[in-house]
Design a protein that fits this description.
The chain is α+β, with helices and mostly antiparallel strands. The chain contains 5 helices and 20 strands. The protein has helices at residues 2-31, 96-132, 137-169, 219-225, 367-376, and strands at residues 35-41, 43-65, 71-76, 83-84, 89-93, 172-174, 179-181, 191-192, 200-215, 231-236, 243-250, 260-267, 279-296, 301-303, 306-312, 318-322, 324-329, 332-336, 343-347, 358-360. Helix 2 packs antiparallel against helix 3 (137-169).
């Protein structure tokens, strides 16, 4: 009876012993599976120290063209939106009222000139009679004063004529600058008033300004190179091509609310790529950083302890390395904490922990391999 009781117990334990022996090789095999990753080599070179900002394009100058005399607007000699040259005729105001005024003033001058001539003759005659003792000195002096008064009247007449001729010139309005015209505010046939609403606005766009603001921390480097025509590159929003100008203005104070300072760059803009009112991406190189250590930006990850990368060691295991990140140069970042020549993981980090065995691939890491590797790890 005792023999039959022992045998069933052994039979029950044997299956469990077999299962325990089969699990251990499976776990050991999972630890040896390498995770496929992409890597890049840490490089070292001199890089430009650049300042980036969003700028606003402003005309070099803006002129609101107004009439200096009133009258009917007879002719508009341009089409709104045209480029006009300095001195080009823009508007013609009816000149006839000014022409009539000139004729009237010239007639007054002729009449007063005759009166002045007669007064001079009387003054000369009485001066001679005074020397002869025929008339009193008071009479002679009185006629001399009348002659001088008529000469003053002639001077006033001549000044009035010159002013009228100037007013006649104002009936033709010429462009004070070379630039592009805007919307025409007054059409032909309307009556305009002197110094009333602008007839048209002209923006000078050759050259042109781009205004932008940078953090005050960049000011010392900018000021050091300001006298050496610091180059500025501006790319209008939505365009691929850029324009190159030079820094031409540094504001005289830092904005205390934003901690930035206003700068202005001048561009020749002969191709009219920059347009007033546009936004533009501004790039300004202020210095050169020697021996910068660079990695692709996708290699740098953000964690609870800061930014880090995974370095692939010689035994193809991943090492966690915290880094300090500096300036961006294209698709690369300047970092501290790495040595040139080391390899950093740029793709596949989501399946990596410190010490993970990795397989360096050439090309894109397949999604299915990442998934399979993650399951086995």
């Amino acid at each position: 009876m005792r023999l039959f009781r022992i045998i069933p117990l052994v039979a029950v334990l044997l299956p469990f012993a077999g299962c325990t022996k089969q699990e251990q090789p499976s776990k050991k095999g999972g630890q040896n599976v390498a995770v496929p990753v992409m890597v890049a080599t840490v490089s070292q070179r001199t890089i430009p120290v650049q300042v980036r900002a969003i700028g606003n394009v402003e005309p070099f100058s803006t002129i609101n063209v107004k009439a200096e005399v009133g009258g009917q607007l007879q002719k508009v000699s341009f089409t709104e939106g045209d480029m006009v040259q300095k001195g080009q005729l823009l508007f013609q105001i009816d000149p006839r009222p000014q022409q009539e005024t000139i004729r009237q003033l010239e007639a007054n001058l002729a009449k007063d000139a005759a009166q002045a001539h007669n007064a001079e003759a009387d003054a000369a005659r009485y001066a001679e009679l005074f020397r002869q003792g025929v008339v009193a000195k008071q009479q002679s002096d009185q006629l001399q004063a009348q002659a001088a008064a008529w000469q003053a009247t002639l001077d006033a007449d001549r000044a009035a004529i010159e002013n009228a001729r100037l007013q006649l010139q104002y009936t033709q309005i010429h462009s004070p600058i070379t630039g592009r015209t805007g919307n025409l505010m007054v059409k032909e046939g309307n009556v305009v008033k002197a110094n009333d609403v602008p007839l048209v606005t002209i923006n000078q766009i050759e050259p042109i300004y781009v205004t932008f603001a940078v953090p005050e921390s960049e000011l010392p480097q900018i000021r050091r190179r300001y006298s050496s025509s610091l180059p500025v590159v501006a790319t209008p929003t939505g365009e691929a091509q850029s324009s190159t100008g030079k820094l031409s203005f540094i504001d005289n104070s830092v904005d205390p609310q934003t901690g930035t300072i206003k700068l202005k760059a001048t561009f020749t803009n002969s191709d009219h790529r920059l347009w007033p009112g546009q936004f533009a991406d501004v790039l300004m190189t202020v210095a050169q950083q020697q021996n910068a250590v660079l990695v692709p930006s996708q290699a740098v990850q953000a964690g609870q302890k800061g930014q880090y990368v995974y370095v692939v060691k010689d035994d193809n295991t991943a090492e966690y390395r915290t880094v300090s990140v500096g300036r961006a140069v294209g698709d690369e970042l300047a970092v501290g904490g790495l040595v040139p020549g080391e390899r950093v993981i740029t793709d596949g980090q989501s399946k990596i922990v410190p010490g993970t065995k990795v397989q360096v691939l050439k090309g894109v890491v397949p999604d299915n391999q990442q998934a399979n590797s993650g399951g086995q790890g």
